[in-house]
Amino acid sequence: MPTIAERHTIIPSVIMKKTLVTILLLAGLSHTTAFAQENTVIPRPAHYGLTTTPCPAQTNIIGYTDKTLADEAAFLKAALEQRQGKNVKVKQTSSLKRGIMLSIDRKTGGKEAYRLEMTDKVIRLTGGGEAGVFRAMQTLLQTLDAGSLHTGTITDAPRYAWRGIMLDEARHFFGKEKVKQILDAMAYYKLNKFHWHLTDETGWRLEIKQYPKLTSVGACGNWSTPGQGAAQYYTQEDVAEIVAYAAARHIDIIPEIDMPGHATAAVRAYPQLSGGGTPAHPDFTFHVGREATYTFLTNVLREVATLFPSQYIHLGGDEVSFGIKAWKTDPEVKELMRREGLADVKAAEHYFMRRMADSVRTMGKTMAGWDEMLAGQPDTAKTLIMWWRHDRPAELRRALNDGYPTVLCPRRPLYFDFIQHASHKWGRVWNGFCPLEDVYNFPDKDLETWGIDTGREKFIAGVQANVWTERIHTPQRLDFMLFPRLCAVAEAGWTQAAQKDYSSFSRRMEAAYEYMDSLDIYYFDPRRPDRHPEPAGAVQGQKDIPMDFRD
User: Fold this and answer.
1) Residue 291: what are its φ and ψ, rounded to 5°?
2) 507 φ, ψ to 5°?
3) Which end of the chain has the smaller Cβ count within 10 Å, N or C?
């Protein structure tokens, strides 16, 4: 497990680019009036009321009122020390004459709501909960990084409770340091859900101690070189470290164990679990007619539930049709259907998901799944739906009309394996692609198009961008596909529709590009598309996969 100091390590920032005036401000030595810089905060706050008066308050003293804020104070201390190069003192106190004061006021709003007030002596960060104080800290750090510390007040609260990024490491594995970098960027831009796709056809990336072959066999290879090479996976110690790192940044990690389809890597390790597949997707499914399958998956999920404190475990449930044909002639599946009175193999699929959902509930968790799960009519109170099929808005209407909490993550514009510029050649398209502006404008212009009744919008839990990695195989290419669209989805999820403005966002992105440059992030630059050439994507042998393939 990492130490407190390790968990609070902050990635480098653009603070080294400060002007002399800003350095004096940070040191509390300048009282001269300066012109306030334009708001540079992403996501755009609900109210931005900084004046033209410089804020001379000291930033080398942190006080916090409640012992539950000790971790937030430690995080801010590390961030400021890295930026300023000098020691920052921290103490628990009910008041502070000079410095930065952290406190909780439940009247501020929801847990993530906050108020940031900068006066000539004290900078006050008040949150509706610990998470709100942490979000206020990110706003303070962004203003410091942009060199625009002025007196005034910022008040803010998120539009959606779920603001997520999904990373697929089953197809290509990136490792914990890259995951930590993504978590740092998510925290900086107030994203709060990291959906971790850990199992699929290509690889099983999570150590399960009861079933060691899942990683010794199932973790070998990637999408580019299936079944070849050394095993690549996360040990349970790695997971504990990453979960703690995320928790320190108020980010929940939601693990995904895909079933009953996308099971090839697990079946490669334990062939007796295979429910068959097709020539294009061999051994694609778990065997729903064998009791041993349910025992195996329940045991796996018990270890997963212990590793991840999140309320949710994602069970996939998508694209089972790719391998379900074999069930029609399987004698054990036919016996299951006879015994349980199931009309067809789709009913057998729904039976399987109900049983696994029950297993998840006995562990004190809530099942999350892709929108195909709606066909099985799972319990609305105990299921989170992720709507991904942008070509099927009827499924979204169905989810919302039936009262399912639903995360919006449609292919367009929130699949980040889609290209983001017309000149790009490596990635997906589907009657268009996913440029930065489309990500930013989501979902406001689409809700009416999809026929979503305003009374059902309350069931929208939030938004999430999904980074599928069939064609993303290197850290450089991952950066290129994720940034700067991560900033756009952050503002899409946080900022109220009436306050969103793409031209304002584009201006505020100038500070974000400096931030990315300081971290050596190889981002796509929409201002100059040729500045960072598109890295070539992964290939799989001699296969020629068209950009517009349909799933």
Assistant:
1) -65, -30
2) -65, -45
3) N
